[in-house]
Amino acid sequence: MTTLAASAAKVRQPLGRTKAIGWFIVVVGLFTMFGMGVGTGTAPHSTLTFTPIDVSHGAPWHLANLTLPTEWTLVLLGAVIVALGAEVLVRRLAKGAMVRVGLMAIVFLVAVLVWASRQPGPSQVPFINVTAILVGSAAITMILIYGSLSGILCERAGVVNIAIEGQFLGGYLVGEMIDSATNNWLLATVGGLVIGALLGWLLAFLAIRYLSDQIIVGVVIVTMFTGLASYFNSWVLTPYPNLNNGNIASNLAIPGLMKIPIIGPTFFDETGFFYLMLVLVGLVSFALFRTRWGLRVRAVGEHPQAAAAVGISVERTRYVNVILGGAVAGVGGVAFAAIQGQFTPSITSGFGYIALAAMIFGRWRPSGAVAACTLFGVSAYLAYNLQSYQVPISTEILLMFPYLITIAVSAGLVGRVRPPAADGIPYSRE
Amino acid sequence: MPSARRLWDRYRSASPITIALLALVLGLVVGAVIIIATTPAILNAWRGTFHSWGAPGHALKVTFDNVGAAYRSIFTGSIVDPPQFWHSVTTGRGWTASLTPLSETLTYAVPLVIASIAVGITFQTGLFNIGANGQAILGGIAGVAVATLVHLPMALHLPLTLLAGIAGGVVGGAIPGLLKAYTGAHEVIVTLMFNYVASYFMLFTLLSTPLQLPNQTNAISRTMPGGTQLAPLFGTSSGLRVNYGIVVALAVTLFAIWLLDRSSIGFEFRMTGANPHAARASGINARRTLVISFLISGGLAGLAGVAWVAGTTHYIDQNFLQGSAGIGFTAITVALLGRNRPIGIVWGSLLFAALEVGGSNMQANTGIPYDLATVIQSAIVIFVATPVLVKEIFRLRALRAESVKVATAGWGS
Amino acid sequence: MRLELRGITKKFGSLTANDHIDLIVEPGQIHCLLGENGAGKSTLMNVLFGLLQADEGEILIDGEPVRLANSGDAVRRGIGMVHQHFMLVPVFSVAENVVLGFEPTRSLDRLDYARARENIRSVSREFGLEVDPDATVESLPIGLQQRVEIIKALSHDAQLLILDEPTAVLTPQEADALMAIMRSLAASGKSILFISHKLKEVRQVSDVITVIRSGRVIGSVPPTASENELAAMMVGREVSLVVQKSAATPREPVLEVRDLVVRDDRGLAVVDGVSLEVHAGEIVALAGVQGNGQTELVEAITGLRHVESGSVVLAGRDITNHSPREILDAGLGHIPEDRQRDGVVLSMSVADNMVLNTPRRAPFARHGTRNLRAVRDHAETLVESFDVRTSSVEAPLSSLSGGNQQKVIVARELSRPLEVLVASQPTRGLDVGSIEYVHREIVRVRDDGHAVLIVSSELDEVMALGDRVAVMFQGRITGIVDPSTSREDVGLLMAGSAPAGTR
Questions:
Q1: Residues C115, C225 share a domain
Q2: I need a surface site. Which of A80, A129, A263, C472 has the fewest CB within 10 A?
Q3: Which residues lie closer than 8 Å to A13 by C-beta, 6 or more apart?
Q4: C110-160, pLDDT tens digit by residue?
Q5: Residue C271 and residue C293 in contact, taking contact as beta carbons nearer than 8 Å
Q6: Packed helices A351-361 and A130-156: angle between N→C axes, nearest 10 degrees
Q7: Which alpha helices (DSSP H) does A70-184 contain, by range?
Q8: Are B281 and C342 in contact (CB under 8 A)?
């Protein structure tokens, strides 16, 4: 299933792109060192703080603020980026190059943050709250991981689930309504699971039974559900506002562990959805790569005819996985509602698609997807966070950042990842 | 009755047109189900029926009244309101009110035809341009910029405004096209992401550039001067919004017919779309073909954006082509409905434009949100894309229409 | 196991693929099912293996009627199948492939790899089929992959083994080894149903030969039947595999390939220093087992694959790494190996397919606008002169039979200004009539003074058609011989060892 450009790209020298990526990283590093670092003027400094914003559970520890000389910190961070680029160039990393780009993006955003918060400087916020950034990033990352896991479950069985965005939206809407009505996130989760599974079933039904183009059907399902959610919003939620005023889910802190500085608030003082996500990552990894079930699923995604020849039902496997994937994305939508609150029609803002890109970046593996989602999550949060620092970049330009990085990553990846061989190809017996 | 017999046979043989009509019926059924399931008045009536073990007569009546009112509003709001029309015919007055529904449908169909042809061209090449909306936004911005910020004699100004719209869209089409050709990045992801980038870029231009209406803090642009607008077809005094955009849409349709059916490059597009391997072996440069296809598609999408602004609002604000107004997304469904052929797309656009315009009328009359139109449209397309399903529902005999298998093979990596 | 098929009938729409087929395989017997491509062999095997359901008839195992709803049923009944296109997941290990569908597990549904390996080792020991259980299948050579397929069937305790065209991808020597394995399996009591269209190997190994044609059983004969007899049964009339042609009169070289190195998608040098000359007025036939670089060599010549080093010269012009467009315009005619993939667009009309690689050339187009009348006239002329059977030139190509689709390609390529014709597997999957036709046309091209390069994995075709025969093995030309050379010697070249007396 080589497409046009893939076959055209085959003629190319793979080294050329690696070189381009390497030099790009080096240029960004040099810009950080000399464009931002050396130019900061009269010895400003940047301050890092570590106290979490939400201290309701009481921060039993106190880390002193860390004050850094802005100029030298930027030069150092720039040097790190240059080193990443040099590594790509010297070792001719074909496979790891995009990982270095990801690291570069994060280091660069940290550098921008350090630069933006310098004092004396234009910023009203005189410090960087490291813990708050990590907590905020963890929330976005969690949403993306739910989406990626959904994608993995479907694509490992050979079905492209581009409807994750719609399943997010469905889970969000239903979860928010149920929580508003019952104040019970468990019920909301069940509701999100059901709606996600239903949308998964719809995709499976059209893609498996009628052999339709999976991407097109997925996109149309998203369009349909976006319309339906809008309709619902104005026809039901507006007249009954008490169906759309649920609380943000409260955190379930893990005693003891939550008291570890920085790490505690990030990983052990989270909503139940965060822990559920961690469990799901482990479960999907284990099930896909250790169990009989996983072997069969992967066989169906790689070579459905071979699976069918030993009596495995390709259709049933795909149905089950797409419905499971839909359910996971639906729960992801509920998790979204649990951290974001009120529903509005375009609230998911393409996160389902970014999750899908993260899944590709993560090579269709849960562990890889976690890494990729973390990259996207952290960079998205940093980009949003920069708004509060009066950086001389428009808010709107900053908001583009997560989407731009997704485009950049998908451009840099191709030919370096290998999807399940039957991914996206309808299977018919005759 | 041989002719009735023939009609029946034609119905049972499931031609693409039969399938499309039946899909429309099924789409309306889906819409009705949604109305029933979400409208308190109907639900209350049924609840009453169940509680009192009464005959369902009242509940049925309430259901039919509500659904009927909704669909009647869609019809009268988009095509013609018979009593009003009769009034005009007998008295010779009130023609504006009588013709407004049709005028609105045609007005809305103009950008839809253009954008859907844009999407259809990439589909024919085996590519999926989900970014038509973003490209249309860029086209709108570029058009408004040239119209409001450049001063030119009128004879040049309108053509240049439209050209600027095309150019804006070409830029938007070049990004996924070149990225796919030179890095292999999958156009679906790139165009999906690009839509968001374009929306934020629009906000940026409306808030932080000279395009913003002076002395404003809101995201709103300057208004296009009269000479750059697509004037109403029957004059400003007619009160009908239908405008010379129709001429543009017609020209685009003719261009598309030539491009796809008669031109060499269009032949190469279709070949590449139908069998990329054979295209390559026959000496077609896949990279060049896909880039050109995306450039043309982007340019037309941009033209759709500028044709919409120049023909209707004459300015853009933060709601331009956002949410339900995103014609670039509707265009995907129209292209699928019209099987990526220009004439089919024109019919599909008229139908979907009618649903949108009628949907607004429905909201005004019955309160049912016009987003229902989007749901009905998507449902129609799902049925059109899976003709076997329609065939099974209606127990048709043969099947001449094929399942949609247009673009997009996996992730192409 | 004793297998009996009674009156098996399978229809696809109006086509009857199997028409009341009766067949009996005795325990320990090697039973060959002989027939042309499209005779219905594969359909019958798919019915027997539960992948398709018969419309009529019944299957009896040891006298007892059975219903095989899916392949799992068949496997449980002791039927194992080695498919023509291996049913192996390339990225899985040997062990994972062998146990797939019948996995030993521990608690929590975990796979028990230790037991899986042990299963394989015990089957390997019992039947002498060595293979590393932890190797990834895609890293194994074709012969070993086939061995994995056999182990897979045996590990499910198959009593009847179906081998579908098993030698198509093997060298003669590998094929001999397979025959030995088949005999030893039969000796241990397994029944074997062996599907083939190659007369020689069938006579060599079978106990009984059943010939089918157009979905019907024509008859069963012992292996002592002569080849001519079998061929006549297969095709329904006496055929000559000899191509009528005069001696070649080669002139100047037209296609010159020098030290060509080409890499496949995985980066392996599958064409590794090939040099070859094709002269005007001669047919050079390239023989070899599939997968020894012939496909990539042709792709490199036609501009579809990047040339790593070396050169390709066409009529004095260096066309190395030129685009397919330039190479086609330089006078290269190409009949591609996979014609439905590379040669035609099935959804387009016959007329459009006739100008597939010349759409912009006058008179078919002018200033970017096509002249549909000229295209149609051109197609009508070609349909007439090449005897293409089609309802109209506007009919979609998919409505034509395989032979007529091939005729469209041949007509198109021969109607362009030509220096050299490169034809890959030009008769694969065609009926006998079409084969004769294509062969005649190829000889005519030669006699018109053009150079012709034929690539075929059918040894008979290569020997009958070639004026010189080049043999390719593992990316190299192992010898260029006269077509009068014995088949055994060519077989040795195909296996990479040079017999005495060749260059």
A1: yes
A2: A263
A3: none
A4: 999 999 999 899 988 888 888 899 999 988 888 889 999 999 989 888 899
A5: yes
A6: 70
A7: 70-91, 97-116, 130-156, 164-182
A8: yes
Task: Give the pLDDT score at C137.
Answer: 93
The two structure tokens encoding residue A140: 């976005």
Kindly state whether residues C148 and C255 are assigned to the same domain: no
Token pair belonging to C230: 């079998």
pLDDT digits (tens, 9 = 90+) for B68-119: 999 999 999 999 999 999 999 999 888 889 999 999 999 999 999 999 999 9
- For residue B282, the model assigns a pLDDT of 94
Query: In terms of domains, do C291 and C412 share one?
Result: no
- A416 and C CB contact within 8 Å: no
The answer to whether the CB of C324 falls within 8 A of the CB of C302 is yes
* Residue of C109, C152, C325, C338 to mutate, testing the A interface (most A Cβ within 10 Å of its Cβ): C109
> What's the domain count of chain C?
3
SS3 C159: coil
DSSP structure string for C59-114:
EEETTEEE---SHHHHHHTTEEEE-SS----TTSBHHHHHHTTS--B-GGGBB-HH
In a domain, C337, yes or no: no
Residue range B105-367 in CATH 1.10.3470: yes
Is residue C425 domain-shared with residue C480, that is, in the same domain?
yes
Residue C336 is assigned to a structural domain of this protein? no
The pLDDT score that the predictor gives to residue A36 is 81
Given CB atoms, is A393 within the 8 Å cutoff of chain B? no
CATH 1.10.3470 in chain B is located at: 105-367
Which sign, positive or negative, has the C-alpha torsion A77, A80, A82, A88?
A: negative
DSSP C207-238: SEEEEEETTEEEEEE-TTS-HHHHHHHHHSS-
Shared-domain flag, residues C221 and C251 = no
The residue extents of the domains of chain A are 1-126, 132-394
Here the CATH number for the domain that contains residue C456 is 3.40.50.300
**A328-350 pLDDT, tens digit each:** 999 999 999 999 989 988 888 89
**Is residue C114 in a domain?**
yes
DSSP class of residue C133 equals: T
Looking at the complex, report in whole angstroms how far the Cα of residue A31 sits from the nearest Cα belonging to chain B: 24
Tell me the torsion sign for CA atoms C377, C381, C386, C390.
positive
Determine the residue type at A155.
E
Cβ contact (<8 Å) for B189 and A206? no
Residue C455, beta-bridge partner list: C286, C424
Region class of B395: left (phi > 0), else alpha (psi between -120 and 50), else beta? left
Contacts of C370 in chain B (CB under 8 A): 262-264, 267
| SS3 per-residue string spanning C357-415 | CCCCCCCCEECCEECHHHHHHHHHHHHHHCCCCCCCCCCEHHHCCHHHHHHHHHHHHHC
Inter-chain touch C265–A10, beta carbons under 8 Å: yes
Nearest-neighbour CA in chain B from A407: distance (Å): 5
Per-residue model confidence as pLDDT tens digits over A180-210: 999 999 999 999 999 999 999 999 999 998 8
CA distance C73 to C81: 13
pLDDT in tens, B55-80: 788 889 999 999 999 999 999 999 99
Q: Judge if C209 and C231 occupy the same domain.
A: yes
Residues B260, B274 contacting (CB under 8 angstroms)? no
- Let me know if domain A132-394 sits in CATH 1.20.1250.20: no
Task: Give contacts of A 273-292 with C, CB under 8 A.
Answer: 287, 290-292
Range of the domain at C279: 240-331+418-503
pTM of the model: 0.89
A201 inside 8 A of chain B by CB: no
Claim to verify: residue C192 and residue C283 sit in the same structural domain: no
Cα separation, A213 vs A226, in Å, equals 20
Shared domain check, C471 and C326: yes
